[in-house]
Each structure stands twice: as structure tokens, then as C-alpha cells.
Amino acid sequence: MSIQEHTHEHGGSAVYVRTLLALLLLTVLTVAASYIDFGSGNVIIALLIASIKASLVALFFMHLRYEKAVNAVIACSGFLFLGIFLMFCFLDFDTRDDARALHPQPVMYGPAKPAGAAAPAPAAEAK
Amino acid sequence: MSTSTLDFHDPHAHGGDAHHQHHFATMEQQFDTSKIGMWLFLVTEVLLFGGLFVGFGMMQARYPQEFLEAHEHLQRPLGALNTVVLLISSFTMVMGVLSAQRNDKKKLVMYLILTILCACVFLCVKYFEYSHKFEEHLLPPRWYQAQPGDTVRDAAGNVSHGYGTFFAFYFMMTGLHGFHILVGIFLLAWIAIRANRGEFSSKYYTPVDLVGLYWHLVDLIWIYLFPLFYLIK
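YS: structure for the whole thing
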């Protein structure tokens, strides 16, 4: 009667091997992309690839694709609230004129490494 | 609701399954309940790391130049190596769960040991990365020592707070993640010992499944940590 019986063996080793290969391929891709300068696109590409990888892990390795929907709902709700958290924090940060005005110059720390290395021009201050 | 509609048998005569606890109507209900509990725990883990990710994003927006220069000190090949090691360990873990579902005790134990080995390789690589950073004084602001390549400085040669802030986040987040790996090693060892005793079968492998979920989550967090720290531009 064991009802676990029918929830068994979702996927199977062939699916897991293919998932692993896809994950490794995406890792190579994300490292390769990081050496190319896409400007602000680099962050988006890196996070997009990371999200595809995370989805593969969740869907196949964590069995979300085959599980009861309630587990997927719980998992998605976690990421939903994380999204809300991120969104409001950055909305706040980006719309503050005074975020930098409070500390126009970063706090400076400690003496420079004295070792003979060519000291760069000290002119480049943070804007 | 009458018990008959629930297909409720005498709890102590449930096909003789010793793992069936009497407050669950069926083994399936027991399994699903454990699983929901585990997923709820994983969500709290996501939110725990989420707070740190938000902080990292804020500070990166505040100190973009410093973060860019600081991340050049991380060894990208080692980070990539660790990513591959963790992905492989996730694969061996899921193969372990599959072996449990197939009643293959020998393979289950083998895959669990392989997973533990991958975890140890990961921590070894992290050890070398950390010791490199300690030697170079690439540390949180209080202990950070200016590097020759640091461009954001004042006239006296003092460097920006942002460099150390990057490493504060680096150590906090990879450290917390590394702690999860360490906990995972103990959990995997515990499961491997129980598996070796023959405690798991296709009818009862809940602990293997739940530790697997935990292990995949640790992998999943690293999937985001790696590009954010090692690959940002």
C-alpha cells in the first residue's frame, strides 16, 4: 500500500546527468561572459545565468517539477518576499538624493602599504 | 470525518512499517508533512541570505569603484573550481536519493560518501582562498591594508572604506555559506551511517530526501554567491 511507491523515481539518472551537464555548461558560459565587457549588461547576464542554474537545481535536483504543488508554492513565496525586500530597498536607495550627500567622501582608512609598489595617482577620488 | 473514509488502519499494524508514527494517517501523509516542514525551513534560509544579498547590493551601489577593484583580488579559477565541485556534489546527492528509492543500499552509501568528499574539497579550496586573503590583509575595514592598486584614496594615501566593506561582506557571506557546508558534512555522515545500518528503503527514506534538499539549497546559494563576488564588473 505504500503510497510513497508512486511518488518514486521521478527523473531518473539520465535526467540528472543531463541536468548536471547543463549546469556545468552554464558555469563555463558565465565565467566566459565575465571576461567580456558588456557594460552594465554583465550583472544582468550573470544574474540571469545564475537564475537559470538555480531553477534547474530546484526543478530537477530538488524534485519541484514532480512534487506536490504545495512545495513549489512555498518555495516561490520565499523568492517572492525576497523580491519585495530587494525591490523596496533599492527603490529607497535609488530615490534618495541625500544618500551620498550625507557622506560625500568615503571614510578613509589606514596608511597605504609602504612597500615600494608604484603608488597610483591619488587624484582619483570617488565622485 | 469518519476514519473509514481516510483509509485509516490501526496505527500499529501499518504494513508493519516501524517508521510510521501513529499521528499520521498514512506514510504518504507523514512524508509530505516532513517535506513541507523542510521547505519552510529552506525559505527562512533564503531570507537569511537574502538580507546579506540586499546589504551587499546597497554597498556595491555606494562604493562601485572600490568593489570593482576589490573583487580583482579574488581568485576566479578557484571560485569556478568550487562551483563545479558543488554542482557535482549536488548530482551525487540526488543519485543517492535515487539509490534509496531503488533500495540500493550500497550505492546510497557510496554516493553519500562521494558527496561528503566533494564538500571536503570545497572547504579545502576555501581554506587556501582565506589564507591568501589573510596574508595580503584583504580584510574587513578595521584590518584592511591598502593595496597598491587601490585608486580611491585621499591626499594622505588613506584608502576608502569601501575596499574593506567588500571583504566584510565576502567573509560574512562565504563564511556563513561555509558553515552550512560544514553542517551539511555532519548531516551527510549521519545519514551515511544510518544508511549503512540498512535503515532506509524505498518505503522510508525521508531523512535522505530532506538532507538532500538542504544540500541542494547550499548549492543554490553558492550559485548566486559565485557570480556576485567573483564575476561582477
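YS: worth flagging: Helices of chain B lie at 27-62, 64-71, 76-101, 105-135, 161-196, 206-230.
IM: good catch. Also Confidence is low (pLDDT under 50) at residues 1-14 of chain B.
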